[in-house]
Design a protein that fits this description.
mainly beta; two-stranded antiparallel ribbon
Amino acid sequence: MVKFSIESVGEPIAVYICHCKECQKQSASAFGISVDVARVGFQITQGTPKYWYRMTDGGRKLKCAFCSTCGSRLWHESDPVSETISLKGGSLDEAVDVSDAIHVWVSRKLPGIIIPEGTKQFLYD
């Protein structure tokens, strides 16, 4: 039984693989995957999310949506509001193609994680 459903119109703006400590903790993995989409065309079609706020490693405030039934992260958005929503890759029905993903917070990636040569990346520290 589906407890939560969202839809977004249009192609993703960008796909990011974030190696920051918060994404590592929240995903219980080596990194988090985010798919940036336009806020216009984004809508909740089923369910009511819960929200919490956190500060990012870069010092911004982030509004985080999660499923009140299972606790899965669904999306993040800037506070104050921006023109994009960052869908969490693991919450999507279809697999995310990360072959052209932009890697961020690379300075905090775990040892042994290999980023393909020529991939766009940002260290930040």
